[in-house]
């Protein structure tokens, strides 16, 4: 009986292994495979927990206006992923060397080295530059402005038969078309360990290659090699965690170092296994490779070349570049990618602007423009993107509409310059589209947002904020980029608030003047001086129905001197009681003390608020 049970169990395990990892069955895991017709049956067979939105079912999603309606802010501190560029080679070399076996920063103890992970071969900058030119999937991961990880992978077409013995062994014995992971590297710094950076890179790779090769009949597996000695259990355990299986041990004749060959034949299943409810694509604000698979998703970002301070109504001038990306099915047939060394395949916009939007489905959106001119507009297919992803760039210059908010704290108020993009709502073909934030815009990280220093005499420009929500009136997706601007409060404190406070303190002297005419004349002079300053402040204060803190300071001095004149008049006219006459001087001194203390307190509060906001905020152009 035991023998029969063992035979049955072996048969079941073999069938399970075949269903999960054989080449023929892995096609079922690609929701976006163009050769599949019934994605619902496929989904049931896969038991995918978090299916991605792809071009399969895109037409039906238009009819039902089915798009993610999650409202969320974009975290400025989130890691950013982009493709490697030629000028990154030196940074990549430094990072690779820091975790290589020969690095002085690597631990010397074998156990510590085994637990942390390491690179056996770190290349020089020239070699990495060559990889950047040929590798379709050379991903870099940044935390702020610091490079903390990279993943070097490329298609089997780029394997050099003369230099890559192990990789040719995979190609000749296992699979002709696959994706090879050459290196995966994460910074060894304590603050970068256990942050999930390597998993983020692999999730991006899984979704990217699914989209990148979806025109092929069979999905591509992924292969990686890990040295057997010295032991690298950290790398082995991690690759098993992200869905790889050890299939063979191979010893290249070149160096004689035995290596394990790992295979992942179902990257989409691995991606789903690595996804949680909190990290699913629908609630991710970024235009990553998962979002890029949906033809209705629009990646968007803005770069500032120049921006002006808001006027008294909140309007502002700006010169901006808008970058949008989206998947356009069939565009790769009209504009096939050529291996001509160019970084982009240009699209002739004039040929398609008047034609049906099935060829180029330009995003139609409303922007808070007042008087804005379009300087340029062009579209292309970037060599780093899948073959059917269009990039559209516009350069705009002019005045954008805005409004002043929360001016009660003037002159230490914090305003926002807003660029608000709202999807059109009069066509179902538009209503189903939604925005996601591009990691990089015009080769600039979105939290930096500018390529030039932006300065103003009256405001300090702070780091941008972004949010994605649903516009209540149209019920369509909206992307809002906010540039907080902090008013230079010290100017107003120095030229208005402090002089008013000093002038108001002179009212103490009037309490010692016995003669009615002299006291009234003195207080009237102080009152008129205060009024003069009110006229000066009128030209530099925003028009608002709200009472600002500067109003409290200026009108406090005005009311104080009016009150002192009226108190003296009541006593002089004989209408006051004896008790009031006896308390006149005390009442006047009390009013002077109270108003002066309030003015000083408000001045201190405004200065502290401004200083705290200035020091604690990240400036525009910085992380």
Low-confidence runs (pLDDT<50, min 5 residues)?
A: 1-45
| Radius of gyration of CA atoms, rounded to a whole number | 34 Å
| Major pleated sheet | 7 strands, mixed
Strands side by side in the biggest sheet: 2-3-4-5-6-8-7
Relative strand content: 15-25%
The N- to C-terminal Cα distance equals: 68 Å
State the shape: elongated
Which structural class should the secondary elements be placed in?
A: alpha+beta
Helix content: 25-40%
Strand count: 21
Walk me through this protein's architecture.
The protein is an alpha+beta fold. Helices cover 36% and strands 23% of the residues. It is built from 19 helices and 21 strands. The protein has helices at 2-21, 23-26, 39-46, 58-63, 89-98, 110-116, 125-134, 165-173, 197-212, 233-241, 267-274, 289-292, 331-334, 428-431, 489-505, 507-510, 516-538, 549-572, 578-616, and strands spanning 72-74, 80-83, 137-143, 146-155, 179-186, 222-227, 245-250, 259-264, 297-307, 316-327, 344-347, 365-367, 369-382, 389-400, 414-423, 434-437, 440-441, 444-445, 459-461, 465-471, 476-487. Strands 2-3-4-5-6-8-7 form a seven-stranded mixed β-sheet, sandwiched between helices. Strands 1, 12, 15, 19, 20 and 21 form a six-stranded antiparallel β-sheet that branches. The longest helix has 39 residues, at 578-616. The termini are far apart. The model is unreliable at 1-45 (pLDDT under 50).
Question: Which characteristics define this entry?
Answer:
elongated, alpha+beta, 623 residues, 19 helices, 6-stranded antiparallel sheet, 7-stranded mixed sheet
């Amino acid at each position: 009986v035991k023998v029969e049970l063992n035979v049955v169990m072996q048969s079941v395990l073999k069938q399970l292994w075949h269903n999960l990892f054989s080449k023929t069955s892995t096609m079922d895991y690609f929701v976006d495979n163009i050769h599949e017709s019934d994605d619902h049956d496929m989904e049931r067979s896969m038991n995918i927990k978090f299916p991605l939105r792809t071009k399969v079912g895109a037409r039906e999603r238009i009819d039902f206006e089915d798009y993610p309606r999650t409202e969320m802010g974009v975290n400025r501190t989130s890691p950013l992923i982009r493709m490697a560029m030629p000028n990154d080679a030196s940074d990549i070399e430094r990072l690779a060397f820091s975790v290589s076996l020969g690095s002085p920063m690597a631990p010397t103890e074998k156990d510590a080295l085994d637990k942390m992970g390491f690179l056996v071969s770190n290349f020089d900058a020239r070699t990495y530059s060559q990889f950047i030119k040929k590798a379709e999937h050379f991903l870099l991961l940044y935390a702020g402005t610091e490079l903390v990880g990279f993943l070097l992978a490329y298609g089997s077409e780029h394997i050099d038969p003369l230099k890559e013995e192990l990789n040719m062994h995979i190609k000749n014995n296992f699979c002709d078309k696959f994706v090879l992971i050459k290196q995966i590297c994460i910074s060894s710094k304590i603050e970068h360990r256990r942050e999930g950076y390597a998993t983020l890179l692999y999730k991006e790779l899984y979704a990217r290659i699914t989209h990148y090769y979806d025109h092929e009949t069979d999905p591509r597996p992924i292969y990686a090699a890990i040295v057997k000695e010295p032991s690298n259990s950290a790398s082995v355990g991690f690759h098993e965690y992200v869905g790889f299986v050890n299939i063979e041990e191979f010893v290249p004749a070149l160096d004689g170092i035995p290596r394990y060959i790992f295979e992942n034949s179902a990257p989409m299943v691995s991606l789903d296994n690595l996804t949680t409810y909190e990290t699913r694509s629908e609630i991710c604000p970024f235009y990553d490779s998962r979002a890029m698979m949906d033809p209705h998703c629009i990646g968007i970002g803005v770069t500032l070349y120049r921006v002006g301070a808001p006027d008294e109504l909140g309007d502002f001038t700006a010169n901006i570049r808008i970058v949008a990306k989206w998947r356009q099915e069939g565009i790769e047939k009209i504009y096939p990618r050529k291996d001509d060394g160019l970084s982009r395949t240009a699209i002739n916009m004039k040929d398609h602007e008047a034609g049906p939007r099935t060829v180029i489905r330009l995003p139609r959106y409303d922007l808070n423009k007042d008087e804005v001119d379009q300087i340029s507009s062009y579209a292309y297919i970037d060599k780093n993107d899948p073959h059917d992803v269009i990039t559209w760039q516009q350069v705009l210059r002019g005045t954008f509409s805005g409004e002043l908010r929360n001016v009660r704290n003037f002159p230490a108020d914090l305003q926002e310059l807003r660029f608000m993009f709202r999807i059109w709502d009069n066509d179902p073909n538009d209503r189903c589209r939604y925005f996601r934030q591009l990691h990089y815009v015009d080769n600039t990280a979105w939290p930096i947002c500018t390529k030039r220093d932006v300065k103003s005499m009256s405001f300090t420009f702070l780091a941008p904020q972004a949010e994605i929500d649903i516009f209540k009136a149209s019920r369509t997706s909206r992307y809002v980029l906010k540039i907080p601007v902090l008013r230079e409060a010290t100017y107003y404190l120095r030229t208005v608030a402090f002089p008013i406070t000093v002038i108001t303190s002179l009212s103490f002297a009037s309490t010692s003047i016995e003669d009615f005419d002299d006291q009234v004349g003195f207080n009237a002079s102080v009152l008129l001086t205060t009024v003069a300053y009110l006229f000066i402040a009128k030209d530099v204060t925003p028009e608002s129905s709200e009472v600002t803190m500067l109003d409290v300071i200026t009108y406090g001095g005005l009311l104080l001197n009016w009150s002192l004149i009226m108190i003296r008049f009541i006593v002089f006219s004989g209408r006051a009681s004896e008790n009031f006459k006896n308390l006149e001087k005390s009442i006047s001194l009390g009013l002077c003390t109270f108003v002066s203390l309030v003015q000083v307190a408000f001045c201190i509060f405004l200065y502290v608020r401004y200083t705290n906001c200035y020091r604690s905020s990240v400036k525009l152009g910085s992380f």
